[in-house]
Design a protein that fits this description.
With 111 residues, the chain is an alpha+beta fold. The chain has one domain. It starts with 8 loop residues before the first strand and ends in an 11-residue tail after the last strand. The protein contains 2 helices and 4 strands.
């Protein structure tokens, strides 16, 4: 059987004034969706239920992205390409890890 993966996506993080677009890989999207496999999105949660894992994933994304959602901690890698005057020519950000608010994690610092 062929494994189906989530597509990489872009996530925009806003803190009121600043806005940053971050690349999110397919494996991290699966982690954010509580490890719901993309292969199983059409499966129902329980035999007597009409609720699918896809519905749960959609609700989870909506709660994360809706305005006024709970804050979370993100671990981001940045790459800046500057010209000779230190003017940014390119700014790339990639999401390395995601920690929902209230989840205990080892450290905010990079290893």
């Amino acid at each position: 059987m062929k494994k189906i993966y989530y597509r990489p996506a872009s996530m925009t993080i806003v803190d009121g004034i600043h806005k940053v677009c971050i690349h999110v890989g397919s494996k991290l999207i699966e982690k954010i969706l509580l490890n719901i496999s993309s292969d199983g999105l059409s499966r129902v949660i329980a035999p007597s239920s009409e609720i699918t894992y896809g519905m749960v994933a959609a609700d989870l994304f909506h709660s994360l992205l809706a305005g006024g959602g709970a804050p979370c901690v993100v671990k981001v890698q940045s790459l800046f390409v500057l010209d000779e005057n230190s003017y940014p020519l390119q700014q790339d950000f990639s999401l390395l890890d995601f920690f929902p608010d209230g989840v205990k994690h080892a450290s905010y610092a990079l290893p």
